[in-house]
Fold this sequence. Notes:
Layout lengths: L30 H4 L1 H21 L11 H6 L9 H9 L1 H24 L3 H19 L8 H19 L6 H7 L10 H4 L11 H24 L14 E10 L2 E10 L6 E9 L5 E6 H5 L6 E3 L6 E2 L4 E3 L4 E7 L1 H4 L6 E7 L4 E6 L2
Amino acid sequence: MCTLLPSTLKPTLAPMSTNPAPAPARPFDPAGTYTLALRLVVGWTYFSAFWRRTALANKLDWDAEGYIGEKFNHFLPHALGIKPLIEYLVSNPDALWWSMLAFTMIEGIVGLLLMLGLFTRAMSVAVFGLAMGILLGSGWIGTTCLDEWQIGILGLAAGFTLFLSGGGIHSLDRLLAKRGAAITRKAWFPWVASGHLDVFSGRLFILASAGAGIILLLSLFTNQVFHGGVWGKLHNKSVKPRVEITDAALGTGGLRFTVQRVEGADVYGSFLIGLDVLDAGGNKVLALTGEDLARFPQERIQNAYVAKVKPGKHSMILPLGAKADLFVQADTLSRLPTGAYRLRLTDISGAVWEAPIAH
């Protein structure tokens, strides 16, 4: 005997859909599209350095005006943490040239691949490293807007952000994956290219927050060290030239001393228009004018680095970072009695630097 159930108790079936349920959106699928403008601009920033030094001008020629090695020498006086490395390179021209060649090629490759979105995450790590070098080496340079510091710290933030986002749909990484290239099936491919990283599923917030916090702290630290930008008195070492005089001594036939320019604009030299030797009463026992310094014998200038102290048209030129031993020969100096003397150098800007002379 069969009992019929009331219609209200009959089970109902949901209509079947002919389309499969959409897969849950992965958090990194759209992220690379959101950062597309950042990837293209940062990529061009680095590729353009290669383009300027090779295609538009030969800045790798160490005998040419604007040699990139001399620009690198400008970083030396106040570099943070990497000063010994910079000093070694600018003291060894061959090693410096190979380093500048490698650095230029790396910038070109990284910038191009980043714009194309090929191995995007690996290139973002390279951007982070390049930006760190810029920040530590030249973060103190910038006559108006802390130029080099801003480039360095923004490069760090951009590299970190692009590592998190990957390349997105507008990238060669995505094209390779779409075509099923064998390399895209490797477990390491998402780490060096683009795509979803399972490790981020529950840790994205921690990684992004910790990375951002560390970069912010580095930003504040370097801003304070280089420019006093967090507290205290602001300072800018790129505005006015400053020259250090050391080891000044009177000996047989003349005066020897070491001069190094440690501050001022990197694109403009310091121009010495006066060199005076003063006695204890402040009287000049030797006075060289700008014209005298413009005719100063090159063989009496022993430069330490690739940025060279040299006679100019109307003065002696001291590029930023340059260091040299000078020998001033004059009969007057050989006849000076024992006493206290001072060396005074005068810049065309009116700045004056003095140091005692051993005698």
